[in-house]
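Researcher: Last one for today. Full complex below.
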Amino acid sequence: MVALLVAAAAAVAFVVVFWSGGRRTQLEGALLALAFGGSGVGLVVWANHLIGGGEQSEDRTPLRATPEEIRELDAELGRGEVIARRVWLRRSAVAAGGALGIALVSPLRSLGPSPGKQLLHTAWGDGVRVVAEDGTPVAAADVPADGLVTVFPEGAVGAADAQAVLVRVDPSLLHLPRGRDSWAPGGLLAYSKVCTHAGCPVGLYQADSHELLCPCHQSSFDVLRGAVPVSGPAAWPLPQLPLVVGADGLLRVSGDFSEPVGPGWWKA
Amino acid sequence: MIIKRFLRWTDDRIGGTKFTRKALDKVFPDHWSFMLGEVALYCLMVLIATGVYLTFFFHASAQDVVYTGSYGPLRGQHMSEAYRSVVGLGFDVRAGLLIRQVHHWAALVFLGAIVLHLCRIYFTGAYRRPREINWFIGLALMLLAIANGFTGYSLPDDLLSGTGLRIAYSVLLSVPVIGTWMAYLAFGGEFPANDIISRLYVIHVLIVPALIVGLLSVHLAIVWRQKHTQFRGPDRTEDNVVGSRLWPTYAMRSIGLLLVVVAVLAALGGLVQLNPIWLYGPYQPASVSTAAQPDWYMGWLEGALRLFPSFRIHLFGYRVPEAILPAVVFPTLTFAILFAWPAVDRRLSGEVDGPDHHLLVRPRERPRRTALGVAVLTFYVVLFIGGGQDIISQKLHIALDTVTVLLRILLIVAPIAIGALAWRLCRDLAVEPPPGDGDPDDVGRDGGSDGAPDAQLGGSAARRSSTFSSASARSSSSDASSTAISESSAPDAVRNSSSSLRWIDDT
Ligand code: HEM
Ligand code: FES
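Model: Here's the assembly. Have a good evening.
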């Protein structure tokens, strides 16, 4: 009884607190808990001590049918044999049902566009300027040593597949894959920011070990060697952008990423 | 009075008296482990009630807006309308934060109760014939609950949940042949196409809840029809159910439990903050927060993604995506094995056409099954821990790679070691001579030994063993129950005892 009375009081208090306004989440939660908890404890105590009633036993009745009943059911089912006898009618019905099923699921196609070749390329291309997250062009001098700058292609700021990171390293340390010798003017490197493991942004840079780190499942990539994975679950390097420094000192690229960005699908 | 008048009125029209009478008389066994399913049910009720309230304020739209609400730090920022509406729930709707947090806490407890319920069913053998259907339905419910948890978690469109969606998109991409199509159709185009939030919303508030409620109704109807299982004990046989009647004892207790569940969820939702999305900020594809963890029930998948070693495989000239093994094949296998388990278990115990089981076994009576279950659980717990491997590395100042390697080793060693330990423990407990019962091969052995080992099990042991001893006083120990079994279904009982011996002897 005490519990139930406490519950009633708490419920009233909740109403008062709620109507008096303000954000008092803790108080409201505690009062509600008291109101429900009091009632609950009250009921359980009541059930256990005042009603009791001891242990009762109830028999299980078999759910299975008797052989007689099964025979009767089989006889009823037997009436359907006229259906089975008309083989071609039955097959036509199956064909109609199947075709109808396909017809009914085909509107699912409207849910999205065809993937086509969209996954293969991004907004980067020959001559596109490199801009920062606020849309301003990035000059080679803007990139701090040991720092990391998130960049986009001009005209596509915020594009999820085009996001890239810029880092600056000592050029003498570089071991880029063959054919990329000119991609890192003055030790500037641009890699896709989309992790090749499951697509998170590779947002952390450890300058002393020259590693980009993905915070989702802790893959790390060595920027000196073309961002090959060093540890963690990612297996493929981050695609690289061919950077160029223009006469005005602003950064551009001479083409799209070295490979399609992001985690793989079953591509050839 | 009014209730009686109402019952009379309905009986005149649809004739419900017979059913109502039988229903009120129905007996429910009272063991604490049977409450887990009820807790899940009551969490679902809370989820639906609070969820409906949330729909009044939530806007499922990816439309870009500028925040002008009452939370200072976000003012002037671009965000989706969905995110803005959830921030508004926290700062501008009275009791909005409370209801939102209760909803989220209820989701966490809901899945916890489901998993514990599943463990109870497994370790006591309650899934055995004739209850396989409910094992399957229960698994489907668990899948749907996980799905709804994930879709709900993704709705606010904050930085954390957006990152989760990005991973989900990658996982879809990794499916062979149809992967790119699946991802494009689900999201409405290349990530982060604008349709996903509104689609997840319909899935979250309509499609999955409807499926859950429908399947749950069948689940409960089957429990009702088949009646509950019960533990062995004096007076408890394969042919009866011993416990409390629905009316009034069981009903009062169960409603009491409902109220206590609501109380706990209200306390958690009011006092323990979770998912403070206003601190995470709105989702932007190029931002990410460190130490990002999903809700606990996704932890095993997070761990799998983190601990699975990297690989480069080409199959038929195609590059195999990394996500497919840990995030597609592994969860598929997990559920395939769970679904197949009743059939596998029938093979193992030589009960292909076996007897019906209404009496539960205690985990220690089936050392091999218990050890297997413990080992599998350990495996998933290690995966779960692996989902926070970066935090462990930070807290313990151990290099991240070392933690990963250690966890990989643990993933294989720990299940074997702890499984073996569980097996030993079961054997030791099981061979303990039952007091006052000489013949260990007797079926009644399990019933007769109840008094002592039950007390060791803890939980509600005190209350229960007192009911047991008073009951056994009435029925002169175990003889009564064993004769009851052999009289009514002799072949079953005999097979039953031999099969239970097989589980123990084969080990
Ligand atoms: C079946 C079990 C359900 C689970 C496991 C579940 C889980 C969740 C979770 C984890 C969230 C994120 C909450 C947060 O922001 O921290 C959420 C949000 C939401 N849920 Fe549910 N939910 C369920 C059922 C429902 C139902 C039945 C409705 C409505 C009819 C609903 C409506 C909502 C709405 C509108 C939101 C977005 C608002 C917000 O995030 O605060 N949910 N749900
Ligand atoms: S997404 Fe980067 S490690 Fe998984």
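Chain A has two domains: 2-55+67-111, 118-267. The first strand of chain A starts at residue 56 and ends at 59.
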